[in-house]
């Protein structure tokens, strides 16, 4: 860790050197600047040698402008936007329309996926692994793409997702940009990029698309549905939508419904992105992508992914270059770390995918009231759509069983219900999972999906009658890595998962 | 509370109505849109009726553009920027230069202040009240400015800061924009607005300016130095800089040094502001102010000022208008709340003030190593400056006693010290306060200045030998208002303060 810090620090210094930005000579201003107190009304805003103090320099803005210029200079044939691929993967094309929860539709769609291990003859050893917000299907290296995946150490022979035993499938979510249909894909209706004509998505929509893939692979039932973060939402949602097709569920650092603080944190990310003029209301695909907004959004996200105590240990109050005077641009080591995280991400992921997938997370709510509302809306949209020529036959009927709604307290107008008033709404919503062995894993230092949300899942499942709930909470003595613990802690996250699946 | 929510919701609805933004008819798209799967290569980015789904609308961007247009339309005589005044206040002009910790200087400066109660004959009943980041000197209404102040209920006859007993002084910090010299002031050296030619400030610089005011008022010694948030930093710093001139100290939701997580949170705010093109590297005073960046910064700040559990109770998952389809613009009630908070603030405070004062908070560190470094730097700058004509006589000699440095472990190169390694550095730094009665107040639900930081202050003072430390921590059963508790909780914050001062 300290070695990578040293590298980071060196990179920062090199950046300053490369840019050749004049750094304010703040340490010896007296020799260069003199007071003149009687001059007034000089042209405001212009630089003058006679100011009391020198103007600050802004290497972070210089770097931003340089990046914009570089992107503007790219060939218009290839388009200035980066291509969002994470390497070689499999792809399933579904030519049947996918009706979405909020009334939109995908007339057809692709779903990118990768697999590890071997499907047994009875097709009973399948683990569907769900990803976090910005991840691709590349959870582990493959023959055709040897690059390490985002859960490289968690998958493999003898690993928690043991490829000697299981056939592991990981997909890129619809709405994403790593091979599955998303806002950067072309709308088959008119050949144009969807951009913000892409329909609003839900976590359940993503799961329905995944089960289309399972249909195609003729896999009736999953051994387990596993995921962390947004994937922890999906792994639960899969069980709720297809209770007969899911054997067991592992949900790590996830929740049963998003709470307002995490909505607020995602809101600020979406807002900074949407306020980047280059975002252009989503229509940037032939132009400069909103790299500044993406960088800022990722910096905010990075703050929510880690924890204060970790940074206290790792960065403390160290400045990137203590020999320089303080600056408004990144200065403390923690700032250069965030800057680096944002910079690394800003062209690696599609901005519109970030907006739609982030919004889907906000909308996530497995409570009965929300399920009822969605079911009614889907039914309405379905009958609207079935009136239309050429489309009625390709409609997907909702797969989810809504029987559990009879156990919901009578909801004359579900929209008006106070969703936070009591977890009874969640108990009713998760009733269908009252027999599924479920592992619920939480991390005390997580501020984005705080540990009370995982306790809520466990409590709700138990209240629904489920006697096979394993709830594990990693204390701050075990992990200070906050939300990101699921990516880093092979021993405790991986260990719990392995024991649960065994 | 629910009444204000209803009002907020009504305001949002009115806003939507006023803007007359076409809202996507997401609930009945089937009647308006048809699939056409064979059209390709239509002009990308253009709107077409034939897309599978309608384009989303963006009322938040419409509102932003409207605001920019309004600001552009303002008379150039008065300047498009707002005037940052909080009403009538007193002002002290110091014509002596103020040498700053990081080598800059203010050749002269104003400090705005207000007072309540009466100064007694022995001038022994003075309480200096320090503000948070963005507050003015208007802590309480006055005859000449009857508008309620930011601590209206905490000051007055019989109130915690009892004006029957105490003479309360509150100043606007230098660097601010409410009457004290800051980046929006004119540099006497050339008559131009400082903008980002304003020098880097520290909390201690602000305190030194305050003590200039006390000198002017011929107040030798404070009965108490009191403050919350950034004011909690200042109230401690006042004691460290002028131990003989401060009687007792109350520091509420403050810290002895900033930690990396709070630096990170402020970093993201500064970054979104600086990336607003209208910020223009600080030179926006004759142009459109960076209202978008300010709004975004305030939204992020607002997230850090409150707590998840409060929002869970207050907003839950309620949407601003459940009859509308989900939107990428503010949608959930928590989002409209943040949007409103940002909107309200974006023209009320100077953007450069936010940057400089926020940076001063990051730089705050009362550890001995940092004090030594600063002392050396000040000495160096002082001798540089004393070489110069016409300025040597107006220099301010550092007032702080550096005797405690002898108790610091030998620091051959203080810049290289690991500042986080041990609180011994803080124990040495706060040694000078080993006799001052001190109240340290913290709030368990505070994520910006977490409760461990106040425990740290208390522990460090006790380790330094102080036997008059009162440490109070308000649990989540008492307050869920997070960092903002100090503004809201008259009973517990005010009550503890009253008992301490009595």
UniProtKB/TrEMBL annotation, chains A, B:
Gene Ontology terms for molecular function: homoserine O-acetyltransferase activity; serine O-acetyltransferase activity
Region (Disordered): 70-89
GO biological process: cysteine biosynthetic process from serine; homoserine metabolic process; methionine biosynthetic process
HAMAP family the record matches: MetX_acyltransf (MF_00296)
The family this protein is said to belong to: Belongs to the AB hydrolase superfamily. MetX family.
Protein name: AB hydrolase-1 domain-containing protein
Pfam families: Abhydrolase_1 (PF00561)
Domain AB hydrolase-1: 125-456
NCBIfam families per the UniProt record, alphabetical: homoserO_Ac_trn, PRK00175.1
GO CC terms in record: mitochondrion
